[in-house]
Amino acid sequence: MNRSDLATRHEPMTDLFTAATTAEDVARHGLDREQVALFREQGYLPGTRVLNDEQLRTLRSELEEFFAAAHAGSDLWYEYHSNESSDPDSVLFHALGAWRLRPGFHDLLWNPAITVPASQLLDGAVRFWHDQLFCKPARHGGLVAWHQDYSYWTRTSPMAHLTCWIALDDSTVDNGCVHYIPGSHTWDLLPITGLADDMHAIRSVLNDEQRTRFDNPVAVELSAGECVFHHPLMVHGSFENHSDHKRRATVINVVRDGVCSQSDEPLLSGADVVPAGDTLAGRFYPLLFDPQPST
What we know:
Layout: H1 23-29, H2 33-42, E1 44-49, H3 53-66, E2 79-81, E3 93-96, H4 103-108, H5 112-122, E4 126-136, E5 144-147, E6 156-157, E7 161-167, E8 178-180, H6 208-213, E9 218-220, E10 226-230, E11 236-238, E12 247-256, E13 260-261, E14 287-289
Antiparallel strand pairs: 1-10, 2-3, 3-4, 4-12, 4-14, 5-11, 6-13, 7-10, 7-12, 8-9, 8-11
């Protein structure tokens, strides 16, 4: 079913999120020095609340529409997998491009609770890369195998990327929360070993010291509306959901303004070409926040 492509709108469409228009607004959403230092040290920073109850209700309502096969705007997804797993009894819903389909997911990109900390962690202005949805149903939710995000993003450089993983439900060990290998953001780039079937496939490309780090992964449990920021080389993954509770999440991936395309093909399916060597810009890569806007 057709629906207007919201990628043509590079500003919030609703009043769901309040813009940071003053220095006081920016300071209110910012991270303190200890939080920034912790991110630099361990490669991830959990526990920042970025959604209130009304925002959660809106996003959950829009998300429910996406599970119907013929939902409006279904032709606008960059990727859409009702189950990315090869096992029909282990379901991982994974889709890219929700911002193009519904106003809540569109306006989420400009949420200052995300963009202001992102600017601090990226040391500059924040530009949109792409969004994702990861949803695991109760009792038969699939896994997300250990991986580094940037291994999927080498068509862009330099590596000045950041992921904001947002819980739309309480995310717990029981229902498949994200796990991290602290400090793995200092490792070299690893090959892609798969996303949705073999949790431990990444072990085949690790050295002995790296393998020992998997003996003590850290589970990051979040309340609905909280997020975790992580580095593009951070090794992370999440286990199956065998609980009685669904686990839904949305992910906002951003870059520091100035990151360039490294491909003469579309960087995302259906997106406009950004020629190799040109900076990300245009309809599909809006600027979200500049801490030092031009006057």
